[in-house]
Design a protein that fits this description.
It is built from eleven helices and no strands. By secondary structure, the protein is an all-alpha fold. The radius of gyration is 22 Å and the shape is elongated.
C-alpha cells in the first residue's frame, strides 16, 4: 500500500478542498485591494480584491465533481454501446452505433465544446453532458475493439452454444475481461475531462460570471501573475495535482494486477 501514498496524497488534497472547502469558506464577499497581500489574506487577494484562499475553498466543486460526473457518464454509456457493437455480430447494429461517432470524431474537441456550449444554458450539468458527448466516441471505439477480440475466444463461443444471454456474455464475461484496458484508459479519460472542463471555465463557458472556480481563477488573474502569483498558481497546482494523482493511482493498480496474474 506504500506505493499509493503519493497518488493518494495528490488526489486527497484537491478532492477534500472541493468537497469540504465551502464549509469553511466565508460567504460575505468582502473585498480588499486588488492583487493585494497581507491584511489577513494568507495568499493575498485576486483581481477584484477577494481573498484567494476563500475563492480556492469555494471553487473546487465545479471542476472536480463535474469531471467525475462526466467520466462516470461516459463509461456508463460507452461500455454497453461498445459491447453491443463489438459482440452483436450484426453489421447493421455495428454501423448504427459507430457511424454517428465518426461525425463527432471529425470535429476537434474544443470546437465541439464551444459549439455545443454556445447553444446550451450556462449551467454545470449541461457542461457535464457536453464533455460526456465529446469523450464518448473514443471510449466506445476502445470497448468495441476489445469486444471484437474477445468475441472470437473459445470461451465466448462455448457460452453462445450453451444458450447464454447476450447481456450475460457481454457484461458478465467480456466487460470483466477488458477491465485492464478500461482501467488504463480511465485515468487518461478523467484527465481529459478535467482538461475540457477547465478549458471551458477558462473560456467562460459553463461557469456563471464571477463564480468561484479554480480554472476561472487562472483566467481572471493571469494579468496579475507577477503581482499576485498565488491567485493563479494555487488553483493551477490543485488541478494538476488531481490529474497527476489519478493517473499515478491507476498506474499502480495496473502494476498490482500485473503482479497477480504472473505465475
Amino acid at each position: 500500500m506504500r506505493r499509493f501514498l503519493l497518488p493518494g496524497l495528490l488526489i486527497a488534497v484537491p478532492v477534500l478542498l472541493a468537497l469540504f472547502g465551502p464549509m469553511f469558506a466565508s460567504a460575505d464577499g468582502d473585498k480588499d485591494i486588488a492583487f493585494g497581500s497581507g491584511a489577513g489574506h494568507v495568499f493575498g487577494t485576486d483581481f477584484v480584491g477577494r481573498d484567494v484562499w476563500n475563492e480556492v475553498l469555494l471553487g473546487g466543486r465545479s471542476v472536480v465533481l463535474a469531471a467525475v460526473a462526466a467520466t462516470a457518464c461516459t463509461y456508463l454509456l460507452a461500455v454497453p454501446l461498445g459491447l453491443a457493437a463489438g459482440m452483436s455480430r450484426n453489421r447493421l447494429v455495428d454501423e448504427a452505433v459507430m457511424r454517428p461517432l465518426d461525425v463527432l470524431l471529425a470535429v476537434p474537441s474544443m470546437l465541439l465544446l464551444l459549439l455545443l456550449a454556445s447553444a446550451a444554458p450556462n449551467v454545470t450539468w449541461v457542461l457535464v453532458l457536453i464533455v460526456t458527448v465529446i469523450n464518448l466516441p473514443d471510449v466506445i471505439r476502445l470497448v468495441r475493439a476489445s469486444a471484437l477480440a474477445l468475441s472470437a475466444r473459445p470461451a465466448v463461443e462455448a457460452m453462445r452454444l450453451q444458450g447464454e444471454h447476450r447481456a450475460r456474455i457481454g457484461l458478465g464475461y467480456a466487460a470483466r475481461a477488458m477491465l485492464r484496458p478500461l482501467m488504463a484508459d480511465l485515468g487518461t479519460r478523467f484527465t481529459g475531462a478535467v482538461y475540457l472542463i477547465a478549458s471551458a471555465s477558462f473560456l467562460g463557458v459553463g461557469v456563471a460570471p464571477q463564480a468561484s472556480d479554480w480554472a476561472a481563477m487562472v483566467e481572471r488573474n493571469r494579468t496579475g501573475l507577477f503581482l499576485q502569483p498565488w491567485a493563479v498558481v494555487l488553483p493551477a497546482l490543485l488541478i494538476v495535482a488531481l490529474s497527476v494523482g489519478v493517473n499515478l493511482a491507476f498506474d499502480q493498480l495496473l502494476r498490482g494486477r500485473r503482479r497477480e496474474v504472473r505465475p
